[in-house]
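> forwarded from #structure-qc
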């Protein structure tokens, strides 16, 4: 495992910049989710070049690089063998110098090209997208985890809080960073297996590294918070809770050399597979890139509308849920959520033929269709079955799984300070349309408030007696 190095300092200008920001805002602790659009614009303009060396004299001890001129043979000397030999030697030197010059940062422009250079279909949004990507880029870092000095996983992360007094910053990333590498079982389980004791290294954008310490792991939303000691200001992410199907977005990440990964796509709603959380949203695209877990999905203003939590499945956690989670963690140091023992799909995202039929025949226009009921759960005991519709929960109509998830977080956040414990029981009122009996019923459902991952257990039974003996 590489050793975490101390960050180098380059003069006093960085300190001056930090003091300037403190004058503008006296709060020692800054949170990303509440940072305003204005502050991001100011951050973009307030650039500090802290490696510039100014001199009062025109002369310099650092001479310019040699001129790069291509040699040639004048026509009147083309027949001379010695001139041709000299030309071959000079041309070899020229080509070697050209190759070296092509490696400088301004000329290395073709080795890494993203969709914003290659895809002509993005011409209409290219300039806005470039600005958005560059605005968000400084808040995106890379992390790697190790078990017994062997690499476990790599993920990206977002700066979401800084504490200027303690000189620490908080990173939001995917829990996949410390998830077990057993990918076959990971596809067939609700809650993953994690290594919270894994060593985690943050790869800072100046090429140095720092150790990160796990502050909180949330298994249901597959997110983790890490604290890092940093001696310079970091750029915090700005979140936008509004995201809609078909929206142009970009998935950002970093490769092993810390270069950006940029993938264009559109937001999509899909019906989740068996072991996918129903609050996921999907990133629909034509490309494939790696190590973007924990990276942001950004809009054309450079604001984060979601965090990638499983780039193989193209799922991401929308910012509206992230925002709720971070607010709860700040207040309670945990993220309590109501466990219903069911999964759902939204009527809103069905084909309009299906929606119109349900409205015409049964006066149903919205609600959540029950897809799975956990075995021996209170929902199962209450008689809720696959295909039933949850129309109201806790006195409110629900039309999407994102709305449901935010409500479950609100109820958990309200109940936890009263109960003072996790895994407490709570009764909530639900209105059910029973699909097999075509009738509505209102019932009290006993639920659990927990910050653990919710597992939906499939109903099974053994066959122990054969048809023939």
């Amino acid at each position: 495992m590489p050793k975490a190095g101390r960050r180098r300092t380059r003069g006093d200008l960085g300190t001056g910049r930090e003091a300037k920001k403190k004058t503008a805002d006296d709060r020692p602790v800054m949170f990303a989710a509440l940072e305003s659009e204005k502050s991001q614009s100011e951050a973009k303009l307030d650039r500090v070049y802290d490696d510039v060396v100014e001199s009062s004299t025109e002369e310099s001890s650092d001479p310019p690089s040699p001129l790069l001129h291509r040699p040639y043979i004048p026509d009147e000397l083309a027949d001379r063998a010695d001139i041709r030999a000299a030309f071959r030697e000079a041309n070899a030197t020229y080509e070697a110098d050209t190759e070296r010059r092509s490696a400088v940062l301004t000329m290395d422009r073709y080795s890494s090209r993203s969709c914003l250079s290659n895809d002509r279909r993005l011409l209409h949004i290219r300039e806005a997208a470039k600005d958005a990507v560059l605005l968000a880029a400084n808040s995106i870092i890379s992390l790697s985890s190790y078990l017994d000095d062997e690499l476990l996983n790599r993920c990206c992360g977002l700066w979401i809080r800084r504490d200027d007094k303690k000189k620490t910053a908080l990173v939001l990333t995917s829990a996949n960073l410390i998830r077990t590498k057993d990918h076959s079982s990971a596809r067939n389980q609700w809650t993953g297996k994690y290594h919270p004791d894994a060593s985690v290294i943050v790869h800072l954008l100046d090429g140095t590294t720092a150790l990160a310490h796990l502050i909180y792991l949330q298994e249901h939303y597959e997110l983790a918070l890490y604290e890092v000691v940093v001696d310079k200001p970091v750029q915090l992410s700005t979140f936008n809770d509004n995201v809609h199907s078909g929206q142009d977005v970009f998935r950002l990440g970093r490769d092993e050399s810390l270069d950006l990964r940029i993938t264009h796509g559109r937001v999509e709603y899909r019906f989740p597979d068996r072991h996918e959380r129903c609050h996921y949203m999907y990133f629909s695209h034509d490309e494939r890139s790696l190590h973007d877990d924990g990276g942001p999905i950004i809009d054309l203003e450079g604001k984060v509308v979601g965090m990638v939590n499983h780039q193989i499945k193209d799922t991401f956690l929308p910012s509206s849920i992230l925002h709720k989670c971070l607010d709860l963690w700040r207040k309670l140091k945990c993220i309590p959520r109501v466990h219903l023992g069911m999964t759902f799909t939204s009527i809103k995202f069905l084909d309009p033929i299906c929606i119109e039929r349900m409205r015409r025949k049964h006066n149903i226009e919205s609600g959540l269709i029950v897809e799975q009921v956990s075995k021996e759960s209170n929902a199962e005991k209450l008689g809720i079955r696959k295909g039933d519709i949850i129309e109201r929960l806790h006195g409110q109509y629900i039309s999407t799984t994102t709305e449901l998830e935010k409500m479950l977080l609100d109820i958990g956040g309200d109940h936890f300070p009263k109960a003072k414990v996790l895994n407490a029981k709570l009764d909530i009122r639900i209105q059910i349309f029973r699909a097999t009996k075509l009738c509505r019923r209102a019932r009290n459902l006993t639920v659990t408030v927990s910050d653990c991952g919710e597992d939906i257990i499939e109903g099974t039974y053994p066959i122990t007696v054969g048809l023939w003996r």
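QC bot note: The chain has a mean pLDDT of 84. The chain is about 25% helix and 30% strand.
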